[in-house]
Amino acid sequence: MKLKLKIKIIWVCLSVLVVRPVYAQLPVYLDEDKPVEERVKDALSRMTLEEKVALCHAQSKFSSAGVPRLGIPELWMSDGPHGVRAELNWNNWHYAEWTNDSITAFPALTCLAATWNPEMAAKYGKALGEEARYREKDVILGPGVNIYRTPLNGRNFEYMGEDPYLAGTLCVPYIQEVQKNGVAVSVKHYALNNQELWRDYIDVYLSERVLHEIYLPAFKMAVQQGGAWTVMGAYNKFRGQHACHNETLLRKILKEDWKFDGVVVSDWGGVHDTYEAALNGMDIEMGSYTNGLTSESAFTYNDYYLAHPYLKMLKEGKIAEENINDKASRILRLIFRTAMNRRKPYGAIANEEHYQSAREIGNEGIVLLKNAPVAKKSAPLLPIDASKYKRILVVGDNAVRPLNQGGGSSELKVKDMVSPLDGLRAVYGDKIRYTQGYVAGKPMYGNVEEIPQTVTDSLRAEAVAMAKESDLVILVGGLNKNHQQDSEAGDRISYGLPFGQDELIEELQTVNRNLILVLLSGNAVEMPWINKVPAIVQGWYLGSMGGHSLADVLSGAVNPSGKLPFSFPARLADCGAHAFDELCYPGDGEKEEYKEDIFVGYRWHDTKKIPALFPFGHGLSYTTFAYGKPSADKKIMKADEQISFSVSVKNTGMCEGQEVVQLYISDKKSSLPRPVKELKGFKKIKLAPGEEKTVTLTIDKGALSYFDDKRHEWVAEPGKFEALIGSSSTDIKAVVPFDFSMCNKNEDSILSEKRPK
After folding, report:
1. Measured between alpha carbons, how far is 312 from 305 in angstroms, rounded to an integer?
2. Whole-angstrom distance between the N-terminal and C-terminal Cα of the chain?
3. Out of 79, 138, 203, 267, which one is annotated catalytic?
4. 677-711 pLDDT, tens per residue?
5. Is the peptide bond prior to 272 cis by the omega test (within 30 degrees of 0)?
6. For residues 56 and 325, is the Cβ–Cβ distance under 8 A?
7. DSSP helix/strand/coil, 423
8. Is residue 574 annotated as part of the catalytic site, yes or no?
9. In Å, what is the CA distance from 567 to each residue of 525, 582, 728?
10. Which of 169, 175, 412, 652 is the most exposed place for a label (fewest CB within 10 A)?
11. Does the pLDDT at position 543 exceed 60?
């Protein structure tokens, strides 16, 4: 017998006698064919108390420990939610300066919200999840679903607007697609982190009703419909307790009421007490003894609240062992879903597919706010007809500024970045000239670079002089990610545009009426010049392919279809959070009361009859749409039924376009005050010129309900309701009345039998 054959026979025998029995004895926790809960139980039974506690706190800036003795890997986290952040050093906030951590910057979540399109949210999540997987991250810190309460909040650009239904509907597919890659999301910042000023300690007070109707629904949808594997606690306090160890938010609502089976991760430095954190639901403590971003400390990771102090309390019997077993079980479950999931895909980074997704999301999120003719009988300026103009002047720091930089933890290191100027030059070539017009200074965390007035005046004068000699002016302005603008750790200090842009706009329109204003921001801004500027585009922060997206829309290659995810008040005082005293916003430095209650955003504008400058859901198109007469599939909706509303929409213009059909519900009489109407459904459709489609939107009892503080439950009262179908919260095309009855089908048939014939 040949030697090779003998060796093969011996190997087969050894496999049968040795390898297979060893495999058969594989611990349950290592066997991916076993149910996750069996694996968790088995792993937990093999762990020491010290190993369980080690799971509950950081071991570096962005990782937490596994169990090396058992072959259970650590967890690696990364900032999001718009892309995977560059690598940082193990134990400080300096970038590691790797050469292989450049990624795709996706549009900010305000832009995603402005698409009003769950398909775009799914594309976003899929691409982001693939990039996080490629970078070997187990948890991506996003999405953010805090509610847009005031346009001064520095972190609004990371969130998805003022309406909980819109934010919740769009975060669900984002979460699902990210997690298909074996990467957990961390939905943030739970909860009531609606401002950056005094964020570490401001104590928020509000009614139980507004908590459940406005500030919690998106988180609830993320957990119960999206299946989020982690939730990040917020910095602020709620009714006297920090959110990262808040009994009501974490233990009672999230874990008991919503049955959340995942892990609560603290915001970096958000834990302040061992006993409260242990008892009230915090699972993994990150970043303690820093301010969340910049400062370092002499403390070790074993000095964290959920490290040695927690272990000491467990050993002394001050905290029951079942407490650590619950935390360790949740963390093991997360590890098995992510770091220890050998069946997850490989991922990809900064490829053409991801660039295309980023571009499509930007295209669908850009909002055309205004597009009026410059003179009577003339066409609007947009889309730009290249044949009409020989000299096109682009003005503005934001036309060339890398807006992936700054903003705090959402700062991104990109492989490619197409600026607005690059995008416009790609379309209009040498017709484009550029001048800065204004200067914004360096993006510095917690500090503002002061710009001399002489520099501002000089840049403005040069821009005005060049505008006189141009056929068309495109001003690319807005905010940026500097401190006290759209940035973490500081709110805006003014509702107006910074860096002398108001004066620049006034002077530009004086010398050239062909002025297009592009606002790149994550917030509404004041517009004292609104009647003098014929065309205004809300462009958001558009990411790596932002310049192409902007050029696509301005040129007409893409018809704008974005709709505002929040209202633009004409004045700051027109916003509910600013309609009371300072205790309502920003608070007195210690406490804050949400005195506007449930009347946030369009709910405030409607109820108080204060028109917004641009309303929630607003967005123009280069084509026109005609709505037909709507109908309902029933006149009386029973408690256990759904009701559907249908309306035909026709493209009556000359180009293809997309329209967002919006459904609002109005309760005509209720025991408690209610908004005039509330968003409860929407659908985005694409129509060719002359094409007509029927849109059907369906709701159930939940869409008619409000939260009753006294009964502590959701209540749908029988009576008369209206379905309002429109193109924005103020552009209502039709109203369909219907009744709601608390009788279900069985009760109705019983009552019918008892009625006299």
Report:
1. 11
2. 99
3. 267
4. 999 999 999 999 999 999 999 999 999 999 999 99
5. no
6. no
7. helix
8. no
9. 10, 21, 11
10. 652
11. yes
